[in-house]
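Appendix C reproduces, verbatim, an entry submitted by the partner laboratory led by Prof. M.T., so that reviewers can inspect both the input and the predicted structure.
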Amino acid sequence: MVFEESELLKNLPTQFFATLVAKVNEKVAAGNDVINLGQGNPAQPTFNYIVKALQEQATRPINHKYSQFRGLHGLKVAAAKFYKDKYGVDLEPESEVAILGGSKIGLVELPWALMNPDELLLLPDPGYPDYLSGVALGNVKYKTFPLKRENNFLPDYQDIDEETAKKAKFIYLNYPNNPTGAVATKEFYKRTVDFARKYKIGIVSDFAYGALGFDGYHNPSFLEAEGAKDVGIEMYTFSKTFNMAGWRIAFAVGNPSMIEAINLIQDHLFVSVFPAIQEAAVTALSDPQEEVEVEGLVSKYEERRDAFVSAAKKIGWNAFVPGGTFYTWMPVPEGYTSESFADLLLEKANVAVAPGKGFGVMGDGYVRIGLLVEPERLIEAVERIAKLKLF
């Protein structure tokens, strides 16, 4: 017997980057030395002090039982203390913190939890492709707002027409930004709160790269803005800060009604996260080694950024210099789309990059470079591209 997929599954967006992975794997299988700059998966191992904490916690029989439905109180307390120490934000652990199995889960489930069919969600273009999974699964409508280079890839709320602003129920923001590497300011978040209050729009801040700021820049949290908790939440993942992408652990913080809705839908979908991972996450946030390890990680990415941007500039390929994340957003040469340019680099130079089209219409003039290989390989990638004489 063959069972047909539901209409809900049929309406899910195509996983654009699955095609890129298949192309890269095919080249590698054929014996080519591919420099893969198209990935967004941290390549460094999880910090050792966190691994040791998991090893210890995994031996404890109490952690072998079902987790508490809404996560460990100790992790919520640690998350609240982390936000107080890093951003000066006060949080009540039980009502203003929700534990997530990775921030993608929170971002995708939020429309189910807080929106009704056909209500409007505003999304950035370019933006993280999986935001659209939440749109499809929640059966909601969406419109995009442009992120333009001339505005440092921050939204200009005047670009959102009055009618759309009045209809919108939530808006997603992501700074430091994937894919552009742009960073936000406290002044921007103040304008965001003002916009949210004026139109009664809920704010969802995707703070996945919050710890990764370059040139000494400390990325502000959206929740630092006065009144932010009245209008929205922020999602913080361990994936990028602590190289814990495969561990699937994160948390949402902020507006109590939004946190309660997330907790409620998770009561029906999950029995939280393996308790030993949650205990290790407490250690990740609170151990004195945290600051030293994260500073070292940021320095590593900054060194790679500088190596790539400098090498690219020498061949006439000028980056939008990122202020954070581990990406560089590079313009496509005249005569190419992001996809045709990416295909050319893979075919002729054995260099894989992520086509900007995968992040939205506004991304089609760019490709995303992942700074996840050593500086020498980044420079080698540019040298290979230089031989194509495109710039």
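The mean pLDDT is 96. Additional entries are available on request from the coordinating office.
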